[in-house]
Amino acid sequence: MKIGYLGAGTWGFALASILGRNGHQVRVWSRDADVAKELQTTRVHPKLPPSEIPSNVEFTSDFDYAVKGADVIVESVTSSGIRPVFERLGKVDVPIVLTSKGIEQGTGLLLPEVVASLWGVQESPLIGALSGPSHAEDIITNAPTSVVSSGYDPLVMKLIQELFTTPTFRIYPNGDILGVCFGGAMKNIIAIACGISDGLGCGDNTKAALMTRGLHEIRKLSSVKHCKPETLYGLSGMGDLCVTCMSRHSRNYRFGKLVAEGFSPEGARQKIGMAVEGIYTCVSARELGLKHNIPVPITEVTYQIIYGGLDPREAVKLLLQRAIKEEHL
Q1: Domain 185-320: what homologous superfamily?
Q2: How far apart are CA 190 and CA 201, in angstroms?
Q3: What is the value of pTM for the model shown?
């Protein structure tokens, strides 16, 4: 198939490589002409382990050329970039595969909802998503990985499986697209908190508590999106939470650790040099909690550290001083 691929970061590069190895013609768009030229020339991504990307994967900064005649559009831009990119794309009549993870600020919309709203509908059978515990650094080296395909239409879910499945990249279908996308977005916030915890030297007990209570926080807030709770205990929820909170490849975890070690939030972001989605989504999740009167204490203290100048050590005290209630899962 002809694939128009929007986004040439590490994640986009790794997934485009899969598509190319599976025999598809892929045109990968980057908004940066220099980046597109470098990738087209060197055939390697400077932030990933060296790997051979198939010749049927092409890199370009020409948006119209990238999507012209495409049978499928795949995106790997930032969550904040979804709206402007899809405004530029306009309404199409081919399947869309969303691979970014986030919640839009101001609207509280998940990324499938953003695209649908631009098309003037509540949902569309053409919109699908690929999500789960997966870092580009592992995918590019063919480490065994399991993720989830989702969509409003089973045919799109099946298409995603067919496009991306390899002997080392296993895909499970899940029809709860909002639950799949919500888990993928929220885990980035908890990963920042876990990075902060490790940066302070709090230990494994603390991280386990943050991950467990973080999952509870995600499940509580997911009710406003009418997600299925069981989705959040699967690959796109607990699975993604685990890998993002514990992996050396996790930008969100590394961001939190750098902040705890003394970097300013902006300094930490610049040192990482790539998008840290939890910084953006933390604002959106906090907005949702306030709007629906749902306490999200880990999200709140993470927000205050990033945007309110709260000392990470004081944040730990604030969490420990919260009234203890019976554990409800």
Answers
A1: N-(1-d-carboxylethyl)-l-norvaline Dehydrogenase; domain 2 (1.10.1040.10)
A2: 17
A3: 0.95
DSSP class of residue 71 equals S
> What CATH code would you report for 2-177?
3.40.50.720
Q: How far apart are CA 181 and CA 211, in angstroms?
A: 18
Identify any residues that bridge with 27 across adjacent strands, giving them in sequence order.
Answer: 4, 58
Tokens of 22: 């599976």
- The values of phi and psi at residue 28, to 5°, are -100, 125
Domain boundaries, the chain: 2-177, 185-320
- Which amino acid, one-letter code, is at 7? G
Dihedral sign for Cα 301, 216, 240, 316, please: positive
The token duo for 317 is: 């005290």
Token output for 68:
């012209």
> Shortest CA distance to 235 belongs to which of 133, 329, 98?
133
pLDDT recorded at residue 317: 79
3-state class (DSSP) for residue 183: helix
Terminal alpha carbon distance of the chain: 44
> Mind listing the pLDDT tens digit for each residue in 158-200?
999 999 999 999 999 999 999 999 999 999 999 999 999 999 9
By annotation, the residues acting in catalysis are: 187
Alpha-carbon span 233 to 239, nearest angstrom: 8
> Taking a C-beta distance cutoff of 8 angstroms, is the pair 253, 192 a contact?
yes
How many CB atoms neighbour CB 61 within 10 A?
Answer: 17
